[in-house]
Amino acid sequence: MTAVPDARRGAVPGVVARSRELVRPALVDAVGRLHPWTGEMAAYALGWSDVAGTPDPDGSEGKGVRQALAVLGAEAAGADGSAAVPGAVATELVHTFSLLHDDIMDGDALRRQRPAVWKAYGTGPAVLAGDALHAQAVRTLAEAPSPHAATAVRHLCGTLDALVSGQADDLRFEQRPWTGAGAVELAEYRSMAERKTGALLGGAIGLGAVLGGAPARTVAVLDRAGRHLGIAFQAVDDLLGIWGDPEVTGKPVHGDLRQRKKTYPVLAALASGGTAARELAVLLESPEQLRGAGPARAAALVEEAGGRAAARAEARRNLDAARRGLEDAALAPAAAGDLDALFTYVLDRSW
Question: What phi and psi values does residue 63 have, to the nearest 5 degrees?
Answer without folding.
Answer: -85, -15
